[in-house]
Amino acid sequence: MPTRIVQMVVAIAVLVLALTMTRTDAFAHSDKESCSETSANVGKMNADGTGVSCDAETGAPNKATAKASDLGTALSDAEDGSTAKSSASGEDADAQASALSGGNSQASAKGTDAQAFTVSQDDSMGVSSASGDDCNASASAGDGGSAKASVKGKESVATSQALGGTSDATAKGDDSAAIALIEVSGGGTVTSTAKGGADATAEITASGGGDAVATAKDASAQANSVILGGGGNATSNASGAGSVVTAAAEEGGTATGTGSGGANVEADALAACYTSATASGSGSVAGTACFKSGSVVTAIATKGSTARGSDTSPPTCDVVNGGIAKVRSPAGNCD
To answer: Three-state SS for 66?
Structure first.
């Protein structure tokens, strides 16, 4: 599994699948079970362990539907004018959807030990989809936000949280991890995509919105984008084994980092400025930072070379292996 896997803490309502619920149809003759309720609490369990639960009793009318097959368990809880839909297929597959106060939750799990968990509230939308053995998708939405988490691959993880705004986390291929978090109210957009065993994280950690995009491809590649407050744009793109790229922005700044082939890249825009860092090749390093409004700082490094620049300090260029090291900044240029 990727080393950085952040588990989302969500307040999913307790859903108990038991034969003592309000109405129970026990030990059916099929390995498929389903339920659909608008005002009652119903549970069904097959003799082989396939089970469903639909709880729409609190603050009815609601809409709770659940489907399960092949030893899976699907649980849906809808309260106070909400909609919850879950489906699970596969041995020990587990799908749980909880919707409160006008929320709309969907959870789908397919595969042995696949898990999908969704919670939404306050007119928000949450969707989690997990397809593959031992994978996990978690989505949490509040304050009118939209959160989507999608996994396709063995032992992969996608985590999405939106307190307002839009959050989308997608993990494809075995051992991939995608995390997209809007941690405070105030909107914005976060998008993370991880493929082929990579790790991608996009976050907004303080109010002011913004747009954070992180894309990582190939085993052990890491892309991290974060908006630190006051809006802005942060984009990171990492490809090739061992590439690590970080982009951070705040106060309306724009930071773009691109790394490939095992490069290390960091781009920081800590004011209403623009910074870009690009590196390719194992051992290559590109770093940029801007702190003054209106500044533009760029750096490029290839073939193991190093290029660093900012708008407050002289640049550094170290060329090796016939590569390129180039910086353009208000504090000076080098190549």
So the answer is: strand
Helices (H) and strands (E) in the chain, counts: 0, 30
Interatomic CA distance for residues 240 and 222, integer angstroms = 9
| pLDDT digit string, tens, across residues 252-305 | 999 999 999 999 999 999 999 999 999 999 999 999 999 999 999 999 999 999
335 vs 328: CA distance, rounded Å: 9
Judged by DSSP in three states, 9 sits in coil
Handedness of CA 80, 85, 91, 94 (dihedral sign): negative
Query: What's the pLDDT tens digit per position in 125-134?
Result: 999 999 999 9
> How far apart (Å, rounded) are the C-alpha atoms in residues 287 and 110?
42
Peptide bond into 61 cis (omega under 30): yes
| Residue 89 Ramachandran class (φ > 0 left, ψ -120 to 50 alpha, else beta) | beta
Q: Are strands 83-89 and 104-110 parallel, antiparallel or unpaired?
A: parallel
- In 3-state terms, the chain is what percent helix, strand and coil (to 5)? 0, 55, 45
Strand partners, 239: 217, 260
Query: What tokens does 186 get?
Result: 């105030």
CA atoms of 227 and 207, how far apart (whole Å): 9
Q: In angstroms, rounded to a whole number, what is the distance separating the alpha carbons of residues 276 and 253?
A: 11
The model's pTM is: 0.91
